[in-house]
Design brief:
The chain is of the alpha/beta class and about 550 residues long. Among the domains are: about 5-210, 3-Layer(aba) Sandwich (Rossmann fold); about 370-440, Luciferase, domain 3 (Roll), CATH 2.30.38.10; about 450-544, ANL, C-terminal domain (GMP Synthetase, Chain A, domain 3). It has a 15-stranded mixed sheet that branches. A five-stranded parallel sheet has the order 4-3-5-6-7. The chain starts with a helix and ends with a helix.
Length: about 550
């Protein structure tokens, strides 16, 4: 069956109205309150003229017939209320990277054709600087924060607007075809707006198919699943401006769990993060690879925290090294570390769970429903044991395309033997046991002496050295090799292992030709707020 978010979340709120849905600082918002606040926001959007101009059946895959709400917020209850409110108004929500400068914001707002913007007052000066160039950006809703910035001309205050709006669910014809728009991070190119039918992303990543299970067949089965969700309390680490955090949050809300945000949301504050786990007796946390694991492990090593409630450490969006998985399980012996992989264009695809005493690895995953490997020529689906490197792909519930870009849509979502696939660009190969070895994004591979070298594979090898705190690998021009591998390394405080020691450790894990030809040492490896490496920054470092 196809579902849309308003019907799912209204049914859940009716079944468990008093259960905590969101905890953020001193705010404890029940499912009934979340439903009402999102309905009020929907009314605000509709009262300002936002609407659907064309239904899905009349449109090409790269087109949208709905108005769009850009969400430019730090983590908090307003972000999830904003998404749900947009869905209930039949307005398509989309994410805005809060680190963008004015030029990048101008591109995103123009490319997305956003008519409405929900933003923190902190960002008001940037909004003011670009809005005169964006005549289509008509509706501004400002969320008050610690900045104290005044309302922009023509903007409305979020809480005042909600208080004046109707608490009733708007009488509009919600559809499973209504859009969810997710902008890619743009770490290897310009951000692109991925268009999903809400029914498809619900199954692909946001609770429509429980982990290890099959798609829900009715609203009744969805609501029944919330009976056990009351015990699940999950702390959300990464920013909601990235897909992984949105997906896990909606997965929690669909299962009747409680989404908890750290008190500090503008950066990862390890002490605050662990304090919130302890205070709220959290059962699960969501992090992003080593960028989150390392500082959290350093804080755990200081001791003094009761983290005995924690049973699940979920990680996605960036690699989580074997060494850090082992370290997490040393501190949390009763927990399971679940390393997940997916992309904006596929939803969640595969997982690699680890527990104390089990074999621990990084890079190999058990595929979920629809995950597969296509041949290098994109002409057939490979089978387990095929000795061939291909493309990590997804079939079944996949996006419609990229907003306004028919060419990229056709390239990323090809048809093979009559079946439509999503192929975002990760290289992979099947193993004989049916697991998939994901090698990394093809766009950041290094072609050295005719050999393709995957940056993530070399990074993982270097992270095995105990003196390495963080590392990112990039290629630079070479007269001899065409391109050569260079590692940008952030060392642990007080460590000075030297190039030979790092090469010796990496040489235990990857072939000699993949080893770095040079090292660049830095105080801090640049990553996005979600923990993903910034390869554009890395290339600038090695070529300067």
């Amino acid at each position: 069956m196809d579902f849309h978010f308003p019907e799912v979340h209204e049914a859940i709120a009716a079944a468990i109205p008093d259960r905590e849905a969101i905890v953020f600082r001193d705010r404890r918002i029940s499912y009934a309150q979340l439903a009402e606040r999102s309905r009020r926001l929907a009314g605000v959007l509709l009262s300002r003229g936002l609407h659907v101009s064309q239904e899905r059946a009349e449109l090409a895959p790269h087109e949208s017939g709905q108005d769009h709400l850009a969400i430019y917020l730090h983590n908090g209850n307003e972000y999830l209320e904003g998404m749900l409110g947009a869905f209930k108004a039949r307005v398509a929500p989309l994410n805005v990277n809060y680190r963008y400068v004015e030029e990048e914001l101008l591109y995103l707002f123009d490319n997305s054709r956003a008519r409405a913007l929900l933003y923190h007052a902190e960002f008001a000066p940037r909004v003011a600087a670009v809005r005169r160039k964006l005549p289509q950006l008509e509706v501004l809703i400002q969320v008050a924060d610690e900045s104290g910035n005044a309302l922009l001309p023509g903007a409305v205050d979020y809480e005042e607007a909600l208080a004046a709006a109707s608490p009733a669910l708007p009488d509009v014809a919600h559809s499973p075809d209504d859009l969810y728009i997710l902008y890619t991070g743009g770490t290897t190119g310009m951000p692109k707006g991925v268009l999903w039918r809400s029914a498809d992303i619900f199954v692909a990543a946001m609770g429509g198919r429980p982990l290890g299970g099959t798609e829900h067949e009715s609203l009744e089965t969805i609501v029944a699943g919330t009976a056990l969700g009351g015990a699940m309390r999950s702390v959300m680490g990464p920013p909601l401006m990235h897909g992984a955090a949105q997906w896990v949050s909606f997965l929690m809300l669909t299962s009747g769990a409680t989404v908890i945000f750290p008190d500090v949301v503008k950066k990862l504050d390890p002490a605050d993060f662990l304090a919130v786990i302890e205070r709220e007796k959290a059962v699960a946390i969501t992090i992003v690879g080593d960028a989150f694991a390392r500082p959290l492990l350093d804080e755990m090593a200081r001791g003094g925290r009761d983290l005995s409630s924690l049973r699940i450490v979920g990680s996605g969006g960036a690699p989580l090294s074997t060494a850090n998985k082992r370290a997490l399980l040393e501190h949390l012996p009763e927990a399971t570390v679940i390393d997940g992989i997916g992309s904006s264009e596929t939803g969640t695809q595969a997982t690699n769970p680890s527990s104390k005493g089990s074999e621990i690895s990084t890079g190999d995953f058990t595929p979920g429903p629809g995950a597969c490997v296509l041949s290098a020529e994109l002409d057939r689906v490979l089978e387990p044991g095929d000795d061939e490197m291909g493309w990590f792909a997804q079939r079944g519930r996949v996006p419609l395309g990229y907003l306004g870009d028919p060419e990229k849509t056709a390239k990323t979502f090809p048809e093979v033997d009559g079946t439509r696939f999503s192929v975002p660009g990760d290289r992979a190969r099947y193993r004989a046991d049916g697991s998939i070895d994901v090698l990394g994004r093809d766009s950041v591979t290094i072609n050295s002496g005719g050999e393709k070298i995957f940056a993530e594979e070399v990074e993982h090898a270097l992270k095995q050295h105990p003196g390495v705190y963080d590392v990112v690998v990039a290629g630079r021009p070479s007269e001899r090799w065409g391109e050569e591998v260079v590692a940008i390394v952030q060392l642990r405080e007080g460590e000075q292992p030297g190039d030979p020691a790092l090469l010796a450790e990496a040489g235990k894990h990857v072939a000699r030709y993949k080893l770095p030809k040079a090292f660049v040492y830095c105080e801090r490896v640049e990553r996005s707020p979600s923990g993903k490496p910034d390869y554009r920054w890395a290339r600038e470092q090695v070529r300067s």
